[in-house]
Every structure is written in C-alpha cells, then in structure tokens.
Amino acid sequence: MSEKDLSRRGLIFGAGKLAVGAAGIAALSSGGFGLLSNANAGVTPAAAGTWPWPYEKLDPAETAEIAYNEWYRLFCGGAVISSVFSQLKEKVGGPYKDFPTDAFIFLEGGVSGWGTVCGSNAGANIVTNLIIGPRIGGSETGMLMGSEMLQWYSEANMPIYMPKEPKVKEELPKTTSGSPLCHVSVGTWMKASGKGLKSPERKDRCARVTASVAYHLVELLNQWKDGKYVTEGVVPATIHGIPAQDNCMSCHDEVPSPPVYTPPPAPKA
Ligand code: HEC
Questions:
Q1: Phi/psi of residue 141, each to 5°?
Q2: Tens digit of pLDDT for each residue in 110-148?
Q3: Ligand 1, residues 114, 240, 251: which to mutate, most atoms within 8 A of Cβ?
C-alpha cells in the first residue's frame, strides 16, 4: 500500500473519523456552519407545517429489490427515492401521494451526468431530510443521517446487495471508492473491471449499488423509528473550514489550509 493510500485510509477510515465525530457534533450545536446556524433556524419542520413526513418501518431487502428494478427506469437517485416513497405511499399515503419522484431522474450520473455526488447518496439525503427533518442541534437531523450515508458509501465494498434476479447473472467485481462522488465511484469500478460506461455490467453494478444504498438507508430509518438510532454523521465543513469529503489526500498532495474568516470586533458599548 502506498503512502498516499495510507493517509487516505487514516483520514476516511481510521481514528480521524472518530476525532472528527466529536468535534463535528460540538460544531453543530454551536451552529458553526451556515446551513445549520441559527440564521436558518426559521426553516423548522414546525414552520413548514407539513414536514417532516411520517415513516413506517420497511423491509430492507424488499426496498433493495424495488431500488434495483427502478434503476432501470429512473437511475440511481430516483430509484432510491422511489424504493422508499412508493412503499410509504401505500402504507402511509398523505404527502407521499403527491411527491414527484420521477422528476429526480436528473440525479443520474452524479447530477445530469457531471459525476458529482452519486445520485443514490443524493436520493438518500432527500429521503432522510423529508422523513427526519432538519432539527437544529440535535442528534436526529436528517442531514446527519444523510452525512452518515455518504461516509458509509465511501467505505463500502460495492456493490454489496445481490438482487434475487439480476439482469447480469455473474458476480461483479467489488470496489471501495473512498468517495461519495459518482465519478470516483464509477471510475474506480471501471478501472477494476475493464468495463465501459455503456456495458450491461456497469449498468448492473450501478443498479446494485443503488439497491445497497436503499437497503442501508432503510436499516438506519428503522433504527431511528425504534428510537435506537445514534448518528455517526458529521458535517465536514464545520471541521475543515471548507466543504469537503474527509480524505483530503485523495486529491491533494498536502492538505491546504483554507483562509479563516475572523468576524470584526464587536462595537464598544
Ligand atoms: C475530490 C477531490 C478533493 C478532495 C477530497 C479535497 N479537495 Fe480541496 N480542492 C480540490 C480541487 C480540485 C481544488 C481546486 C484547486 C486545487 O487544485 O488546489 C481544491 C481546493 C482546495 C482549497 C483552496 C485552494 C488551496 O490550495 O488553498 C483548499 C483550502 C482545500 N481544497 C482544502 C481541502 C481540505 C482541507 C480537504 C479535506 C478535508 C480537501 N480539500 C479535500 C479537490 C479536492
């Protein structure tokens, strides 16, 4: 393993993650990051009235099957949303009946094919935020569960989930992306497998990744519904002074320090 690999591991897999955990929670409760600061406290579920939405526990494997099949219609992001919301539409009804899941087809290919965040992660974050809501300062925020999903995705040896009736019959190579980005995840896998973007294998790999994300998402949501969920999610921007995935060295040779904003001194009374 190269030095670069080691430092990457250290940051994303190792003690770094735990250290970041405590700091992240502290930063969260002090509202260090714009999106979670008190300035945004007006956007609460209570103010919105119809949000967050009710949740009933779902079967992870059934959800994963739906996600796998829906990938062939809506791709990664739409398929994750559909796998959860199509079931809640039946079990709960209400707001799920009007949710325009198909509109989220644009999450394909890391948002309109730009290889940014893998759509399955974006879809999972949409689901956690609609169901849990952006509660400020607590450990139950949809954003923190969404962040935990991004971290989990980065560390997972994908694809994990094997569908009951896969369109491609053989086992597919598994890779760990070290990143929640579509480009890095798909690229790492394409290099390992030698398969092109349009190959049936690459498509089935992404459908299985999508199913794996849906499975884990429902595991976490079920824990939360049972009152047993303790988040491992952090908001990296609160720790690093720049929004970033945690393993800086996968892109930088050395970790650059962002400029720090110092607020002007308070006027003297
Ligand atoms: C997915 C790749 C990627 C990751 C991961 C990443 N960066 Fe960057 N970062 C870039 C790119 C590309 C730029 C644009 C300028 C450059 O190449 O330095 C940049 C720019 C920056 C800059 C501003 C330019 C500079 O050199 O000061 C800072 C600060 C920075 N990154 C810090 C971090 C930190 C801290 C982390 C980890 C917490 C991190 N980055 C993780 C790709 C990445």
A1: -75, 145
A2: 999 999 999 999 999 999 999 998 765 555 689 999 999
A3: 251
